[in-house]
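Q: I'm writing up a methods section and want to include an example of the input and output format. Could you take the sequence below and give the corresponding predicted structure tokens, formatted cleanly so I can copy it straight into the document?
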Amino acid sequence: MRIPRTSRKLLFVFLLIALIGVGALLALPNAKAQASRTIGDTPRFLHLHGNTAVRAMLQRSGSTMVNTIPYWSSLFAYNGNLYPYQMVGTDPSAGSATTTVRTVIIPLNLVFSDGTAFDGTSRVDKTEDSPIFVNAQYTSGYTQYGDAIQRAEFWKYVSNQSRNYHVRLRHPQILPTQTINVPAANGSVGSNPHTKQPEGLIDINWFDPQIQALITSLHIGPKTLPIFLTTNTFLYQGDPSQCCIIGYHSAIPGTDANGQSVIQTYIWSTYNDPGMFSVPIEDINALSHEVSEWFNDPFTDNVVPNWSVPSEPQYGCSNFLEVGDPVVGVSFTVNGYHPQDEVFYSWFARQTPSIGINGQYTYLGTFTAPAPNC
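A: Here is the clean output for your methods example:
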């Protein structure tokens, strides 16, 4: 059948409108659309470093004048330069002492704009029962994970004049779950490239202020270590493809109502399922990394000679005393959990031999020599 010219024109217009309509529908944002991460499959830990305000406060006030967690200070020399540092507890070379730091866990329920929620409450019991807080057997003694690493790190002193040296976390108080609604502009739900399960992705530039606000609203004191706990949620900086930050620790300087200097330290960590990365990262691995780094650099201001390791290119040439960064993905098993290996102080200070247990430069002996320069 032959269609008249006028009708053909009308049919063409209708088809064009229909095609435009379909294209518009395809272009509409899908509430269930998932972000992707194609870069940074190896998990990393953010450096909230260069805290000049904290450093200035410590230099000005001294340890007896700052309201914060208990810490000690020292320094080392390398190539004619002095490198001061602070660590949690007491100086292991000064004799046996036990330091216990009050700890609280704040589970976070992260609700994304598509309605998906990742509730850290589901991980509280497992975290509370983990080697972070429960004693287990280590080469340096029967104790908590963080304390075991510290004792092994300064074994030269611990094995002689400081046999009863300990730095421990008090069994945590569990605070009520805090719900955080994540705007679409600041986070989204992704599909894990390995397990294909949902994962949360959030911009840390938006997330960290939420954490700091909770510290204030929950009236957490500076002598307490708050641990913000999430599940299967990772952070990025600006671009979701730059995932995945799985933990960080930081410090906030300030003054209290009496005008006394205050430094509030804190940790955020995710508890993730196995198989979500190309390296063995699961359960309390990220938290173990951050706890050990908090022990060794609580105020995020410890600077050391430049170092780099080929296995961790995400950190480039670093000068931070962050004991977990050089060995990300190197883990071991403790009572069914998977904490991370940690680098010892001697590695950063280029000490030969190492003062660590068995002359090692990490707890597992991953490195056999001090840090290479870069």
